[in-house]
Amino acid sequence: MVIPLKSPDKVVVPFSAAEVDALNRFQRCGFVHPFTCANSHEGDRDLVATRAGWICCHCDYRQDWAHRAMLKEPVNPMADVLRLTP
Ligand SMILES: [Zn+2]
């Protein structure tokens, strides 16, 4: 059994329903590198947040923590650059 490392900058399992939704929104936002499976295999390696932690859909890899900053609404750092001007 792995004991999660406690840190004010991390959230650990079990994740709440709101945390799962926020983590998956962050994971799929498209402008940050997602958490990925540490194992080498075919198929998608992006992790999916669940109340029991991150899971890989193609193997038994699990992760029991996330960065606390991932709970906030992701903000695209290129938003101002990409905004069309009139
Ligand atoms: Zn995997």
What does this protein look like?
With about 90 residues, the chain is an alpha+beta fold. It has a domain at about 20-75. The protein has 2 helices and 5 strands; from the N terminus they run βαββββα. The strands form 2 sheets. Strands 2-3-4 form a 3-stranded antiparallel β-sheet. A two-stranded antiparallel sheet has the order 1-5. The longest helix is centred in the N-terminal third of the chain and has 11 residues, at about 15-25. The structure holds zinc ion.
Please tally the helical runs, counting DSSP H or I stretches of 4 or more residues: 2
Output the strand order for the largest sheet: 2-3-4
Class derived from helix and strand content: alpha+beta
Beta-strand content estimate: 15-25%
What is the approximate shape?
globular
- SSE order: EHEEEEH
- How much helicity do the residues have? 10-25%
Could you give the distance between the termini?
A: 57 Å
pLDDT < 50 runs, ≥5 residues: none
Total strand segments: 5
Largest sheet report: 3 strands, antiparallel
Q: What molecules are bound to this protein? A: zinc ion
Rg value: 15 Å
Draw up the topology in text.
Layout: E1 10-12, H1 17-27, E2 48-50, E3 53-55, E4 62-63, E5 65-67, H2 79-82
Antiparallel strand pairs: 1-5, 2-3, 3-4
The protein binds zinc ion.
Zinc ion binds at residues 37, 39, 41, 45, 56, 58-59, 61.
Observed structural traits:
alpha+beta, globular, binds zinc ion
Question: Could you give a short description of this structure?
Answer:
This protein has helices spanning 17-27, 79-82, and strands at residues 10-12, 48-50, 53-55, 62-63, 65-67. By secondary structure, the chain is of the alpha+beta class. The model has no long low-confidence stretch (mean pLDDT 90).
